[in-house]
Amino acid sequence: MNSGRFSIAKNVEAVAGTSVGGLNAALFTAGDYSSAEQLWLDIAPSKVLTLKAEDIAIAVSKFAVGAYLPGVAPKALMTLSSLLGGAGAFSQDGLADLIYQSNVCNSIDNNLSLHLCALTAKNGELVYPQLNTLSAEDKQKWLLATSAIPAVFKAVEIDGTNYVDGGVLPSYSDNTPYKPLIEQHNCTHIINIYLDRQADTVTASKQYPGVNFWNIVPSQAFAGLIEPLNFTKENAANLIELGYSDTAKILKQFKPFMDDEACFMQAAFEFAASNTQFNDQILVNQQLRDGRALDSKQLTSPHSLDDVLSELADTLNQQEREIANQNVDSLIDEFADNSNELLEHAFNTITTLASTEGRINAQLEQSHVSRVLGSVSGSNAKLQAGVNYDLNRAIYSSQLLIQKLNHKQVLTMEAMVSLANKTNYLMTHVNVLYGSVKKLEQNVFQSVALMKQGIEALAHQCDIRFNQLENRIDNLERSQLVNNWYNNTKSKCISLNTLQPSELLIRVTLGFYNDLGREWSNSELSSFTNLLHDIGLHQALLTPCSLFSPNSAKLFLNNIQANAILPVPPKHQQFHPLLKGLQIASDAQNDATAEEINQTIEQQLGLALNNELSGYEVGLELLHSLKCNDKRLPAYSNTGNLSLLSANEHTTMQAQLLAQVTTYKKINDDILINKNIRDDLAFLQNKIEQFKVIIPVIGQFSAGKSSLLNNYLGQDYLNCDINPETAVATELSYSEDEHIIINYIDNKLSERKELGELQSLTIDENIFYIQVFINNQKLKSRPNLVLVDMPGFASNNTGHSKAIACYLERGDYFINLIPSEKAFDATAINQLQEINLNYEKDIAHIVSKSNRLPSSKLLAVKSQLQAYLTEALESGITIGHIENLGTNKNIIDFENAVDTALNQFDTLLCKRYSQQLAKLAGHITSAINGLKKSSQSSEAQIQEQINKSHSAFSSVENKLQASLKDLEYNLCSVGKEQLIQRSQQVLGSSVSVLVSAAKSNQVSQKINDLLRPVLQQGVDNLVKQELQKLDKKLDIISEQQHSDVKITLNIPAEQKEAFSTAYAAVAAGVATVILGPLGGIVSGIIGGLLGRKDNAEEREQQIESQVREQVIPQAVNMAVEHCTQQLNSAVSKIKQAVLSSFEQEQNDLKQSIEHLKQQLQQSEDAFNEQQLKFDNALIQIQQTNHTAQIKTNAIKEAS
Q: Judging by beta carbons within 10 Å of its beta carbon (0-12, 13-18, 19+), is residue 876 exposed, middle or buried?
C-alpha cells in the first residue's frame, strides 16, 4: 500500500526475500498488492499451521543448547546436520495450496528480478536463485523451500538437493538477502525490512559502503519469539498494520522533500527550455531590426523617434552579448547534480534515523535480567554501537544536506540574475517594438487620413451624382408613367364616346388615382386637368344627380378597391359629399331606382343634386376625397405595367401588425426555431388577417332588430316572426359563396347548410350562434364587417344568455335598439352596464319605431333616455332614431353607427392584438439574449448548462404546478364562495321583487335576470384577475435566473382566446338551470300557495318565507355549482395547454443547446457572423417595436 501511495514501486528494479519474506517478494512482483494483502487477511490456521512456543521448543531443544555452548562447534554442526536431514513435524500441503490459489507462480513479472534465499541441507550453504525464468512448478518448489523451517517442515528437494528456510538458523541465515541485488543487479539503494528490533544494520553498511541502505526496523516488539510465524488472520492484520505504519512514518517525512525537489527541478528544466527559446527570439529580433533599417528608408517620421530607436538598438546589442556569455546550460547541469545529491543526503538522514528507533526501544524495554545478560555477553554494547554508528551517519548526512542547500541558494541567485538580465532585455525589446509600431502608425495614420479625405470627397461627389441620377431616372420614369397614363387614357376616351360625361369623368379620375399610386405632385395634377380639357370635360357642366346614377355607381365600384376607401366616416361626410353620395349609390340594391337613390342622398347629405358644377371642380373634389379617405399607404410605381389597385391592401394598423408578425417569424425561424413562438405567431397572423369588426345589434325582444337588418341589407334574410324561445344569435357577413354555418355548445362540430335553409331552421338550446354568409352589395363594400342579430333581452330561454355571454368578449361595438313604445327597461340597463362598464365596449343607442310617436313625444323620449343612460353608464350619450316601416323609412342613424364602428377598425384591431405581439417580442428578445450568451460559452460551460438545465426545469415545473394549483383553487374554491356570497346578496335584496314575480309565475325568469349578470360579472372578474395573476407569475418565473438557463413561460395565444370564450359562456348556462330544473322545483314550492283563496296577506308572507328559505338557497346552489363545473373544465384545458407549452419549451431548449455544441466547431469568422446575426435581430426587433409604438400611439390619439 505504501509503495503505491508514495510512488516507490515504479523505481524498484529487483526484489529478494527469505521465508515468508520470499513469498511476499513474489506477490510484490505480481503487482496486485490488494490481492496479496487479502491473501494474508483470509488465511486460517488450518491452511498452514498454528505455531506455539512449546512446539518449536520440543523440536529444536537439542539444537538450541548445542549450537550456543562455547567451544562445542562440532556438536553444533552434528546437531545442524541432524536437523537439516530429518523430517519435519508438519506438512507443507496447506502452504502449497495457498501458493497455488494465489496464482503467484504464473504472475511473477519477468521485468522485475526476483531472488529467494534458501539453505542447502547437506553442507549448510546459502543460495540465492532467481525465479523469473523458471517454470511455475520450480517457482513453487523454491517458494516452499525458502519457507521450510527446519524441524517444522520437511526439507524440499530440488534437482537432487534438499533445501530449507534460509533465515532461521543462527550463523547460517540471511533474513535480508541484499547480496544478489547489489552484486548481480548493481542496485545502489536497498530497502531492508527486519523482523528483529535488535537487527544488525551496521554490517551491511560496512560491507557495501557505496550503497545506501534504508533499514526498516519494527518500532514495537512482537508478542512472543515466533509471532511473525503465527499464521492467523488476526496476526497477519497486526503485522501488516505495523509494517505499514513504520514505513509510512519515514515516507511521510521524505516525500514532501522529494516532491518539492521534483517541482524545483521541473522549474529549472523549464527555465532552461525558455532560455533556448529566448536565445532564438534574440536572433529573430536581430533580423527584424536589420529589416527595419531597410524599411525605415521608405517611411517619413520625426527625427527624434529615429534617434530613440537607434539608441535602443545599441542597448539591445550590448544586452545580447551579456546574455550570450551566461552559461545557462552549465547552470542547469549543476542544478541537476546538486538536486540528486540533496535527495541522497536527505534519504540517508531520514532512513538512518528511522532504523535506530526500534533498537533504542529494544534497549529501553529490556528486563533487568536481560540487561545484565546483555552486558555480560556484550550484545547490548554491540547494539548501542550500531545505534551510535547510525546516529553519526545521520549527523554527517545532515551537514552535507545543509551545505548542498546553501549551494542551491547560490545557484538560484545566479538563475535570478540571469532572469533579471532577460527581463531588462525584454523591456528594451518591447520599447524597440513599440517605437517601431508608433513610427509605422504615424505613417499609416497620415496615409489613412489622406485616403479617408479622398474617399469621403469621392463618396460625397458620387452620392450627389447618384442621387441626381436616381432622381432624374425617377422623374423620367415618373414622367413616362404620367405621359403613358395621359396618352392611353386620351386614346381610350375616344372609344368611350358612348359614356355619359359623369361616367367618363369617374373613369378618368379613378384611372389617374390608381395608376399614379394614390399620390401625385402639382405638375402631375396638371396632366389630369389638361386631359379633362382635351377631352372636353374641363368646362362641361355636371350635376351630382348624374354622378350618382346606378351606372356611375357600378363604374365606381368596378374601378376602385371600395373597402379601402368606404365607408366615409359619418363625422367627415359633410366634407366629402360626392364620395358619400357614391357610397350611398353603391350600397343601393339592384332594384333601387335613381329617384330612390337621389332621395336617400338628399335626406342624408342635404345636397342640391341639380346644381351644376364643372367637370374640373367635380374631378378635383373627387380626387381629394379619395385620397383623404383611403386607409392604405400610398403605393408608388414608375412603370405603367404594374397595377396598383390592390397594392398595400391592408389598413395601416393591419399592415403594421402583419409586418411585425413577419419580422418575428423570420427571426424565430432563422435563429430560435421555437415551436411555441411559431404557433403563437401563426395564430396571431391568422387572427389579424381575418379580423373583422363585430357589431352585435342588441335590445328588447320585438325592438325591430331583425327587420332593421333586413332593411339595411335590402333583402329579407332574417325571419322577423321568430318566437322569443327560439331566438339565437345570428352573424351576417359577406361572401360570394352564400351559406350558413351552425355552431354548437360543448365543442360539437359545426354544421354547414344552404342559405335557403335559414328561414326554416329548427332552433334548439344547443346552438351557440349561426353564421350567415351572403353576397350582398352593402356587405361587399364592407368586407371587414360582421353584423349580429341578437336575441331580445326579455326572451325566456337560454338563447339570450348564451348570445350575450358569447359576444361580451367577441363583440367590438354594440348597437342598442330601443323600441319607442317601451323605452325604459331595467333589465336592459343591467345588460348595457355590463357591456359598457365591465367590458369597456362602445354602444350606440337608437330609438326604433320612431314614426309611431309624434315628433314632440319622440324628442321628449330621446331627451329622457339620454339623461337616464348618461347617469346609468356614467358617460356622454347620443340618441339616434330610425323607422323600418312605412313610406317614411329612415335608418340613417343606424347606417352611420355601423360606419362609425367600421372606421374604428385600426383602433379595435390594435386594442385586441398589439399587446400580445409586444409580449411575444419580449419573449423573442429574451430568448435571443440567452442564446447569444450561451453561444459565447466553452464546450465545458455548455455541458455544465446542460447539466444545470435538468434541475432548472425541475424547479420551474414545480413553480408552474404551484401556480396552476393556485389558479384552480382561486377559481373553483375561493371563487365559488365569492359567487355564492354575491348571488345570496343580490337575491336576498330582491325578495319583494321575487315575490311579485311569483304571483305572475315569473319567479324563475326573474331569478335568471338577476343572477346571470351577477354571476357573469363575478366569473369575468375572477377569471380576468386570475389570468392576470397567472400571466404575471409566468413572467416572474421566466425572468428569474435558473442556473443560467433561460426558460420562457406563457399561456399559448390560441388557448388563451379559447379560454376567454369558454369562461364568457360559463354563466350563460345558468338560464338552463334556472329555467329548467329550478323552474319545476319553484312551481312545486310556491304553486300550492298561489292557488289558495284564504287570507291574501298571510299567503304573501308564506310565499316570501318560501322564497327566502327554499327558492333562493336552491337557486344559488344550483347556479353556482353549474358555474364551478364549467370553470373546472375550462381550467383543466388551460392547465394542459400551459404544461404542453412548457414541455415544448424544454424540447426547444435542448435542441438549441445541441445546435450550440455543433457550432463550437465553427471557425472564428462563422462565430462572428453568428454574433452579428444575433445583434441584427435584436436591433430589428427594437426598431419594429418602436415603429409599432409610434403608430399605435397615433391611432389612439386619433380615436
A: exposed
Query: How many other C-beta atoms lie within 10 A of the C-beta of residue 495?
Result: 8
Could you write out the DSSP letters of every residue in 1003-1057? HHHHHHHHHHHHHHHHHHHHHHHHHHHHHHHHHHHHHS-BTTB-------HHHHH
Distances (CA, A) of 280 to 4, 290, 324, 332, 602: 42, 16, 11, 18, 104
What are residue 940's DSSP bridge partners? none
CA–CA distance, 1149 with 1047 (Å, rounded to integer): 8
Measure Cα distances from 23 to 73, 169, 848, 923, 1186 in Å.
33, 19, 120, 74, 87
**Which of the two residues, 400 and 611, has the higher pLDDT score?**
611
Residues sharing a CB contact under 8 Å with residue 221, sequence separation 6 or more, in sequence order:
197, 361, 362, 365
Residue 900's nearest CA partner among 569, 562, 582 is 569
Q: Is 94 exposed, middle or buried (0-12, 13-18, 19+ CB in 10 A)?
A: middle
Strand partners, 842: 813
**Rounded distance between C-alpha atoms, residue 138 and residue 418, angstroms:** 62
Cα atoms in the 13 Å half-sphere on the side-chain side of 1166: 8
N residues, the chain: 1199
CA distance 1142 to 957: 8
Q: Which three cell numbers stand for residue 315?
A: 542597448
Number of Cβ within a 10 Å radius of residue 1116: 23
- The crossing angle, in degrees rounded to 10, of helices 1003-1039 and 826-833 is 10
- Cβ atoms < 10 Å from Cβ of 867: 12
Summarize pLDDT for 898-930 with one digit per residue, the tens.
Answer: 999 999 999 999 988 988 899 899 889 988 988
**625-655 per-residue burial string, b: 16 or more CB within 10 A, e: under 16:** bbeebbbbbebebeeeeeebbebbebbbbbb
The pLDDT tens digits of the residues spanning 534-583 come to: 998 888 899 988 888 888 888 998 888 888 888 999 888 889 999 999 99
Collapsing DSSP to helix, strand or coil, 883 comes out as strand
Task: Please tell me whether the overall predicted TM-score, pTM, comes out greater than 0.70 for this model.
Answer: no
Give the three cell numbers for residue 876. Answer: 356622454
**Using CA atoms, how far apart are residues 1015 and 1072, in angstroms rounded to an integer?**
14
- Distances 704 to 494, 566, 701, 853, 880 between C-alpha atoms, Å: 52, 27, 8, 15, 15
Buried b (16+ CB within 10 A) or exposed e, 1018-1053: bbbebbeebbeebeebbbebbeeebeebbbbbbbbb
